[in-house]
Amino acid sequence: MKRFEDLVAVDRITFRVREGEVFGFLGPNGAGKTTTMKMIQCISPKTGGTLEVFNMDVETHQREIKSRLGVVPQETNLDPDFSTYRNLLVYARYFGIPKREAERRAEELLAFMQLDEKRDVLIEKLSGGMKRRLIIARALINAPELLILDEPTIGLDPQARHLIWEKLRNLQAQGNTLVLTTHYLDEAERLCDRLVIMDNGKVLVEGAPADLIREHAGSDIVEVERTEKAIACLTGLGVNYDLAGDVIQVFTDRPHDVARELLEVCQHEAAVTVRPATLEDVFLRLTGRSLRE
Ligand SMILES: Nc1ncnc2c1ncn2[C@@H]1O[C@H](COP(=O)(O)OP(=O)(O)OP(=O)(O)O)[C@@H](O)[C@H]1O
């Protein structure tokens, strides 16, 4: 739990991350994700409850926990006075990594993150995606057992995001444990083995993306334009639906039957589509709001 004066930013949440998995915190801005990450990183003390990292209390074992963690913060906090390579070396010093070893790791990480061509350039010459990749490389310098990423692809274009996703999947394949926050549904769906959906400091649900979708939204969603005929048809069929602007979204375990009925009743006046359900539908069903900004 985390309280800032009157505001409860993280409100009695419970979660457990398993070794080797990618665990996500998905939620809108202000949900409490960053605050939770900072408590795990031992840089923001909790104001209640218990929190253990590597089975150690965050209050009593800060130093040891920090030495075994890698952190990718939301903001780009690279040192502008140094080159790509030197940023890694300087960071390695905080962990007391011997120079030779630091140089070896830095070279290796630059290659892994596809930054070797930018080894000697200043930070201002890097693209947004390259900077994020460098921050991830920097977080790996101490060979952490757990990597924490706060919005790893925030503000990046699709191509830059895909490259980072690929790197994160590689890291998982190598046996790393990853905890990430995101407000991007596709990122959560693609990367996370399990996740919690957070809103207003609380955890709404926890599970594997596919399970959450199946439990809370069904496999497919039928969408139809909002007309009186369509509503009458759905009421007659006794199925659940939500209104999303001019569109009706139907949650049902027999989407194709419902779509057929709708097409018949609406006599093809209104477009009817069937699409796979997503985490966006889960969020909408749980909160009545859209996660998109
Ligand atoms: N240092 C602070 N002092 C006071 N309130 C804070 C502080 N840090 C965060 N908050 C508040 O706590 C709540 C949760 O913020 P938090 O940054 O954890 O959300 P988030 O889910 O990570 O969102 P975002 O993706 O925008 O960072 C917000 O209402 C925020 O204003």
UniProtKB/TrEMBL annotation:
It holds the Pfam family ABC_tran. One of its GO terms (cellular component) is plasma membrane. Residues 1-225 form the ABC transporter domain. One of its GO terms (molecular function) is ATP binding. It comes from the Archaea. Its main location: membrane. The keyword Translocase applies. The keyword Electron transport does not apply. It is found in: Cell membrane. Keywords: ATP-binding, Cell membrane, Membrane, Nucleotide-binding, Translocase, Transport. Belongs to the ABC transporter superfamily. This is ABC transporter.
